[in-house]
Amino acid sequence: QVQLAESGGGLVQAGGSLRLSCALSGGSFWLYGMAWFRQAPGKEREFVAAIVRDGVVRDGGSTEYTDSVVGRFTISRDNAKNTVYLQMNSLKPEDTAVYYCAADRSLDVHTTTYEYLYWGQGTQVTVSS
Question: What is the pLDDT of residues 10-23, one digit of tens each?
Fold first, then answer.
């Protein structure tokens, strides 16, 4: 059974940085495309960033971001550590949310929640103004 465990959330001032980590267990990490979503209070869960599974060549590159984080957030993966990261720089109060890691064995990047089979429990990110 695939399990995902996020870490790295916390409280940070606006303009600061955080790095989230998500470790996958119970499966072959390189087979999974990985993504980060977030959910703010009273709002639906929304796509943040995604990275293709290992070995996939995709038009447009191996990563995808929602417009509001382009140039500030970077998703990456370390197949040796079975871990995906989300480096978040220049954080804004509107980035405050619970951040979720997701995984799927698709060959492409997906940006909707229903396309991901496995989910972590989430980690809270709070950005103060």
Answer: 999 999 999 999 99
